[in-house]
Amino acid sequence: MGVAVGAAVGFGVAVGLGVGVAVGFGVAVGAAANKADKPDLLIAGSVVTQNIDNDTTATLENVLVEANKVKVSAETTSTLTSVAGSVEGSFGSSGVASGMSWAQNDLANTTGAYAKGLALQGVTVNNQSYNPNLTLNAVNTAEVGAAAVGAGAATGGSIGVTLQGAYASNNGDNSTEAVVDKYESKDKTESKGSSITKAGAVTVSA
Length: 206
Description:
Layout (H helix, E strand, L loop, with lengths): L1 E8 L7 E19 L4 E27 L2 E53 L1 E3 L2 E3 L2 E40 L2 E7 L1 E2 L6 E2 L2 E2 L5 E4 L1
Parallel strand pairs: 1-3, 2-4, 3-4, 4-7, 4-8, 4-11, 7-12
Antiparallel strand pairs: 5-6, 9-10
């Protein structure tokens, strides 16, 4: 998270940067085998769950900036991979083989670039005036993969039963925003709008 409060003066100024990176990789394997002349029951399972909850923000707040270029940028990059598998084998006079594989990924990322109560003005350098340019950019990139595989075998002279299950799920709740807004103090006693004097280019993207 990046926050700038106060005043800044400069030529070619980039202010406000937030970067969040998260990588997760999980593997689980369950295996069971039995060979007997009597009834047998085999159960094998594997579970992989991964959660990422990122808040990545970059903010210019209640600040006076005199510059020709101002950029507020926030970026979140997340990668989640989960693999779960199970293998069972039962061999006897009667046998039951059962297994369950579960792979689940949950993402909850918030990425924001904010200019709140920003007073932006141009700058003069060597008697040359430059109009202010403002860029707000928020990027949220997520790559998610989940795989669950199960295999089972049961053989017996009289009874052989195989029960097998596999579940794979990817869940995401992501928020990405770039906002020019007013500033309001936490105690609600101060409020100030944003202004750009003689704006050059204004770019807001998410």
